[in-house]
Amino acid sequence: MEPSTQTYNHRFEVFSIAFALLFLESIFFKTALYIHNYVNALMVISYALLGLGIGSILSIFFYELKAKSIFLLKLTMFICVILSFVNFVAFPSYIFFSPFLVLPFIAGNSLISYFLQRQNSHTIYFLDLTGATLGVLSSVILIPWLREENCFILILTLLAVSMLFNQSKGIKFVSTILVLFSLELLVFNIYSDQINFAKITKCDSGINPNKIFCSSQEIDLMFSKSSNVQRIEAYQVKPQFQKGYMDKMETYVAFDGLTNDRISQWSFPDPYDEPRLINRLVENPKLLIIGTAAEGVIKTAKSLGGHLTGLEINNQIINLMQGPMYQFSNKAYDLIDTLHPIDARTFIKSTESKYDFITLLNTHLVRSASHIGSPEYLHTKEAISSYLNLLTEKGTLVFEERIYNEQTRLSVIKLLHTIVHVMKNHGIQNPEKHLLIYRWNCLSCTQRLGSKFFVMIYVKAKPYTLDDWENIKWWNIGIDKDHHEMIELFPAKKVESSFANQIHSVIQNNPINQNQSADLSIITDEKPYPWSVFKNNKDLKHYLLKIGIVCLVILMCLLGFWKVREKQLIDRKFILFSCYFALIGLGYFIIETGLMHFYQIYTGSPTNTFIFILATLLFASGLGSYFSKNYSSKKALYVFLGILILSIYHYFINKNLIPLMGARPLWNCVMIGFTVFPLGFLMGIPFPYGLEGVKKEFSGSPVAFFFALNCVFSTFAVFFSFYFSVNYGFSITFGSGITCYFLSMVLLYFSRLNG
Asked: Do 77 and 182 contact (CB within 8 A), yes or no?
């Protein structure tokens, strides 16, 4: 084979493997989010990075990669993808650094690292990041289109297709069989839907028992689609497991595997059979429903008369209600006069309309505030302030929170504390005159929702009048007491419960931290975590400790490897380079996470942030690597200085300019992408620049060691940045990333310019 042709093939291998790895990482992330929760999904990213590090070490033992060796590596990835799927569905509790979740990345990156050591680092790194960028972008399109299970099969097909480019006839024959097998399986499952997480996932002690695949009652799955926000399933209980008339007349809807809504065949409910909306405060109100969900509160809201505006960010819910469930729901979505497929913060920023009712009924990205999740921007003081600005003089802001345990109980107190704080900032000196809080139990509800009771918080723009209280009294009397138990918490003077006492304390501006271990501080855009109500955050600390121990053990193994394999001393030069790669590994992912967190508010959803921040950073970093091949030490120092300046610009200036430049999520995403691109370009230079320095300074094959070292610290950085954001806010976390790059610049200055 001609050298030019061989080089081209090698570059194609790097590009295709990088594409497959990032596509696979996205599938793993979405799968862990569905079967487990956000924390485990976040950990999957760490597993992938760790696999990349181990793969770089293994590449040292590949003295020459021929066609057969490349085929065997891809075949290993092919088999590992199958095993990882089996791991998820058959042994879902055993995913913490599961070898089957790490092995595909080990096999793939051993190939990339091999070429990174033997060819120009800048060129290979560019191809690596470009392939990774397209892998991210494709996953965002393909996962909603095909769903996670079919994407597992699709990646098998892509790996098999990439093997066809091999020159060996025997390998081409085997690859053709694998392609045909994968394609046949993909087509079969698209039409039959037999391989579905909701149907085949095993439930065991390590899984949330409320997941639909843990149900003790068999279900008929009617709709199962993934999206860039949440995966949606609609199902009915099979006749032999139905407990009553309600089961026959309702379809249940699950969000990421947790049942959280229902669809009924009735048209309008009896106004007194729905305790969530008080129907006597305003005649023919103008309503804004934030999060229309499936049926949600749509029929109840429309029964009050007036104009109904709905916001729903998840297109799969809209597809469900305007498609398969259109007739069954009695055309519920036709009751919405104006429907916007958009997130609330973006809509509110762009609208000038005023509303008599604005509802936020359990509008959490997870099932409730009892579940650890990603940042949520609908319950912060900045968000609540914007809601109050949209209320008419008679307008009311309505919150619903579901109480499952002590954590959700405390989250309600934390939310109420934030609401009272905002009211005072709006000049409301006596918040108690503007508040009504009550609790209700659904006595006749099916146990599928798992709700113990609901808390409603009514915030009125103007003080409640005597007529208002009279109307509320008659509404309460009319509520069907056979189905609902109503318990007033405020302004009732005496309710015998610690929960009610805490509510009264918050409203009356008394100290609320009766529980010294609780964190009931104001929810802000800086720390947008309604579920974070404990100061120690034991669960997060536990995960951080586990991943820290794993990284420490691997770090010790790397040092032992360096000593034995490379037979080189751990001297000053080695320590300087080690610190350099460790710091840029930490800094890159901390800054990346920080950008995702504080731009999520303008992009509409976590997935949109994932697309435009991660893809932009990857592609820009690849270009930065490619165009910096001949950079001197002086230019490299300017690069670090540029990273520091642009990072500070993004935190203090750009994140405040974005809402002024645009309003719609797509436009905001484009603007964010343009502004992040220069930073990504510069952040792509330090890593390959350091690798080229390693090649000059050390003998043997040390590139793989420092690549692995960088991956280990990147592995730790993923969860470290999340933990720090929850406990200390975005500013301190982002500042720590900037500090890492500053220290890297100092190391570069003293080690390269001064010898």
From this structure: no
